[in-house]
């Protein structure tokens, strides 16, 4: 069995992502810490943490990688009808703490979002690196949400939840169009799911994903103010 490197919390480094295991797919390293510096370094190199409370910190870079190119967002006929009804409003960075905790608590299969992770990503939010996206119903109640990291022209989606039918899909449409307007190149979805694939996400080889990161991670987006201004054009489109 291939041995994995244990990361020293006092040394800030990662092995190259292409050294990750094939089984389990993408497992790259163990240990280290969740300092903001280490997390930013990880995402810049196509690596993310994913582990449970009873495990050491596990670092991953799966192959292939599930991504969504903002201009490839797919809107089905039924979703178009929902968007035309204008039942939801999308905002950003209104309630990061509430969103990340709901992402943790609303998953029936359990969560990898530990208290340690919540603290670290909340600090990234205070630094302007991590962002929350909220979706509201017509009564002003939270209908769903998502959080992720924005570095350069890359957005790294971390987790999403939905409390009402189609809320997460409407959120994805707004997010993709807004990212496209701001000049973002890619949205990292990490691991594929049926929901993501129906929205236009697809898998690409890890090396292609890393190449996109290298070209985009140091490029400043056209807008750094995370105020959502894109609006669905309506049934006339």
Key traits:
single chain; 237 residues; alpha+beta; Alpha-Beta Plaits; Aminopeptidase; 2 domains; 7-stranded mixed β-sheet; 4-stranded mixed β-sheet; 7 helices; 30% helix; globular
Write a compact overview of the structure shown.
Its EC number is 2.3.2.6. This protein is of the alpha+beta class and 237 residues long.
Number of strands: 11
**Could you give me the name of the CATH homologous superfamily of the largest domain?**
Leucyl/phenylalanyl-tRNA-protein transferase, C-terminal domain
Overall pLDDT: 94
Integer tally of domains: 2
| DSSP helix fraction | 25-40%
> How large, in whole angstroms, is the Cα Rg?
18 Å
Structure description:
- It comes from Marinobacter flavimaris.
- It is found in: Cytoplasm.
- It is an enzyme of class 2 (transferase).
- A hairpin with an 8-residue loop joins β3 (48-49) and β4 (58-60).
- The termini are far apart.
- 37% of the residues are buried.
- With 237 residues, the protein is of the alpha+beta class.
- The longest helix is centred in the last third of the chain and has 15 residues, at 167-181.
- It has helices at residues 36-44, 77-85, 96-105, 115-126, 167-181, 194-198, 206-216; strands at 6-7, 27-31, 48-49, 58-60, 65-68, 89-92, 130-136, 142-151, 154-162, 186-190, 202-204.
- The protein is globular and about 55 Å long.
- 30% of the residues lie in helices and 23% in strands.
- The protein folds into two domains: 4-61, Leucyl/phenylalanyl-tRNA-protein transferase, N-terminal domain (Alpha-Beta Plaits, 2-Layer Sandwich), CATH 3.30.70.3550; 64-213, Leucyl/phenylalanyl-tRNA-protein transferase, C-terminal domain (Aminopeptidase), CATH 3.40.630.70.
């Amino acid at each position: 069995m291939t041995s994995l490197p244990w990361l020293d919390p006092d040394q800030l480094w990662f092995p190259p992502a292409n050294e990750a295991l094939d089984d389990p797919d993408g497992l790259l390293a163990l240990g280290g810490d969740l300092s903001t510096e280490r997390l930013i370094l990880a995402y810049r190199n196509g690596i993310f943490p994913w582990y449970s409370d009873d495990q050491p910190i596990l670092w991953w870079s799966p192959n292939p990688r599930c991504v969504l190119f903002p201009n490839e967002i797919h809107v089905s006929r039924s979703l178009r009808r929902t968007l035309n009804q204008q039942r939801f409003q999308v905002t950003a960075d209104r309630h990061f703490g509430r969103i990340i905790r709901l992402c943790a608590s609303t998953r029936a299969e359990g969560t990898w979002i530990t208290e340690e992770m919540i603290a670290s990503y909340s600090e990234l939010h205070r630094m302007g690196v991590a962002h929350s996206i909220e979706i509201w119903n017509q009564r002003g109640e939270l209908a769903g949400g998502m959080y992720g990291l924005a570095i350069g022209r890359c957005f790294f989606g971390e987790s999403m939840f939905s409390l009402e039918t189609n809320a997460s899909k409407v959120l994805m449409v707004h997010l993709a169009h807004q990212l496209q307007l701001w000049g973002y190149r890619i949205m990292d979805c990490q691991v594929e799911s049926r929901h993501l694939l129906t929205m236009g996400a697809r898998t690409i080889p890890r090396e292609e994903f890393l190449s996109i990161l290298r070209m985009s991670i140091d490029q400043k987006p056209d807008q750094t103010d995370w105020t959502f201004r894109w609006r669905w054009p309506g049934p006339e489109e």
